[in-house]
Amino acid sequence: MKKLKIGVIGVGGMGSAHCNSVKNLEETELVFVSDIDENVAKKKGEELGVKYFTDYKEAIKSGLAEGVIIATPHWFHPEIAVFAFENGLHVLSEKPIAVKVSDADKMIEAAKKSGKIFTIMFQRRTEPIFMKAIEIAKSGALGEIHKTVCIDPWYRTQAYYNSGGWRATWKGEGGGVLINQAPHTIDLFTCIGGLPKKIYAKTRTKMHDIEVEDEVSAFLEYENGSWGYYYTSTCEPVGPLHMEFTGNKGKLVIRGDTLTFYSFEYPLKESIEKVESMWGSLKYTEEKIEITSNIQRGHSAIIRNFARAVLYGEKLIVNGEEGLNSVEFINACILSGKKDKSVEIPVDRKEYDQLMEELKKSSKPKKVVKEERITDPSFAKK
């Protein structure tokens, strides 16, 4: 069987788990690892029996790989991806593809120019509950969407933020919960409900000793005049993900691991306009959708799809261009929160670049750092 030769760049955290996936899949062959920390690169290379590099450019130009997985801190994704495309390699980037929309634009342009495959590690797209939700939304069963809601609670300790000098800093990470924990959910939220045209957000640092946001609340406005609400934080130890999408023909609710679809007897707008009874109601059918699937899911599914897209032309689960949506959403929330104003999408590239430069200049070295590069155990095996 043909195998795609893959190198992994950034192997101190999640990249280490990706190495194992590449080694174990029948469609892929791990040919190198690269990390700026020589001890990490050497240890992982010797452990896996492959060549190791400390310079990603040298690794990419080595000729060993046909594609790369980028698992470095966020700021480095664009420059590595562009260099890989320019040197004829296919790219799978960890989320988010970039910190800034202007850099995401460069990645997408480089991918188009190269003609190479570009995809993103949005592995939650492979979870059956979200696959079904996306299918329902794209089928037209909801009709025109009138309202969206997303409540995305996370929990992180101060020890987590103290585990790296780059974490939760403008200079090292480019944001907080929005740029780190939230991208997967934002991807799913915008995939199902669409990308808003305008966002007014409040961002703040509520419970952690960090310089970036750990809580976000945002009011959303869509092209058709519909409204939405979005909330996330790293300050909640309990609470399932909650999403809802109300359309003219039905309502879709995702809560934790349950998916419920409410089918309206008549279109919502028609019912409101034509029902003559003062206390008339709109009948609906509630369906708890069974979620069963034997297909592969998680990180390995995205890597396999990446390989099969290159080898056999298989359709990508996530096209690289789709990665721009989550970055637009994230940048709009941060810009709105910092400027205390509504921000339109597409985000003004120059204004956001300027804001990031100002924030990076104000970024200060951490006083307390206990360096730890450990993969999140809740995701490492997925």
Explain what you see.
The protein is of the alpha/beta class. The chain folds into two domains: 4-124 and 297-319, Rossmann fold, CATH 3.40.50; 125-293 and 326-362, Dihydrodipicolinate Reductase, domain 2. It contains 13 helices and 15 strands. The chain has helices spanning 14-24, 38-48, 56-60, 77-86, 101-114, 128-139, 158-161, 183-193, 268-274, 299-312, 323-339, 349-362, 377-380, and strands spanning 4-9, 28-34, 51-53, 67-70, 90-93, 118-120, 145-153, 198-204, 215-221, 227-233, 242-247, 250-255, 258-264, 284-288, 343-344. The strands form two sheets. It has a nine-stranded mixed sheet. A six-stranded parallel sheet has the order 3-2-1-4-5-6, sandwiched between helices. The longest helix has 17 residues, at 323-339. The two termini are 24 Å apart. The mean pLDDT is 95.
Task: For the largest sheet, list the strands in their spatial order.
Answer: 14-13-12-11-7-10-9-8-15
Total of helices: 13
What is the count of distinct domains?
A: 2
Q: According to CATH, what is the class of the largest domain?
A: Alpha Beta
* Regions with little confidence, pLDDT below 50 for 5+ residues: none
Tell me the CATH architecture of the largest domain: 2-Layer Sandwich
